[in-house]
Amino acid sequence: MLDVQDVRKAYDGLEVLKGISFSLCKGETKVLIGPSGSGKSTLLRCINYLTVPDAGRIYLNGEEVLDTNIDAIRARIGFVFQDFNLFSHLTVLDNVRICQIKVNGKRKDAATERAHQELERVGLADKAGAYPAELSGGQQQRVSIARALAMDPEVLLFDEPTSALDPELTGEVVRVMQQLATEGMTMVVVTHEMSFARQAADEIIFMENGYIVEQGSPEIMFTDSRQERTRAFLNVIA
Ligand code: ADP
Ligand code: MG
């Protein structure tokens, strides 16, 4: 479904991705962990060219992601940001509908129906008419997930979706992600929520300093990690 091959990125001569390769099958959830500054966000952003990689190749369902097809590819890769990125001047309904209409070219009635479906799926059927500022952070993040889902993505990327939330609001967002993982959504999730990683991840990837240090199933990573660095990180965080 997604194949990332030897992706590299430097900022001002400083390499922050030093040859990253991994792949993701349909229906898989991979959780990406690692210290701050290890390159997790840069890697996610490179996958859909929000940041253009210096080298390497990325394939979505066999089609290479390139400058020339990036608009079409972006419509197939959903991205959920730490800070929600909702349009503050639009209602919840319009936030979930606008890309369906402007990017996917859907008719308004079809987009509206789908928006209501996805809002229901994330538990916000009653908030369609609200504005983002009237919602809690957890609710805003769930709207942003509904917006991504309404685009029928082949892959969903999450960059620390609960990091901007008060602790009591992370659970409602984690539960939605867990439900998506169970339903077979294909996703890459950068998160510090280790309970989510344990329960939902098919594989955990540990990144440090621009490299993938280790990857494996949650059972192996949490109990029998080969790498001292992974163990040290998990001891602090888990
Ligand atoms: P993480 O998400 O793991 O915390 P990032 O991918 O955000 O790591 O950052 C990796 C490194 O790249 C950091 O040293 C960061 O300062 C640097 N970096 C990220 N984005 C930029 C940018 N736009 N310009 C310059 N340096 C950047
Ligand atoms: Mg980051």
Characterization of the model:
This protein is of the alpha/beta class. Helices cover about 40% and strands about 25% of the residues. It contains nine helices and ten strands. It has helices at about 40-45, 70-75, 90-100, 110-120, 135-150, 165-180, 195-200, 220-225, 230-235; strands spanning about 1-10, 15-25, 30-35, 55-60, 65, 75-80, 155-160, 185-190, 205-210, 210-215. The strands form two sheets. A six-stranded mixed β-sheet has the order 6-7-8-3-9-10, with helices on both faces. A four-stranded antiparallel β-sheet has the order 2-1-4-5, with helices on one face. Helix 3 (about 90-100) packs across helix 4 (about 110-120), helix 3 (about 90-100) packs parallel to helix 5 (about 135-150) and helix 5 (about 135-150) packs parallel to helix 6 (about 165-180). The radius of gyration is 18 Å and the shape is globular. Bound molecules: adenosine-5'-diphosphate and magnesium ion (MG). Magnesium ion binds near residues 40 and 41.
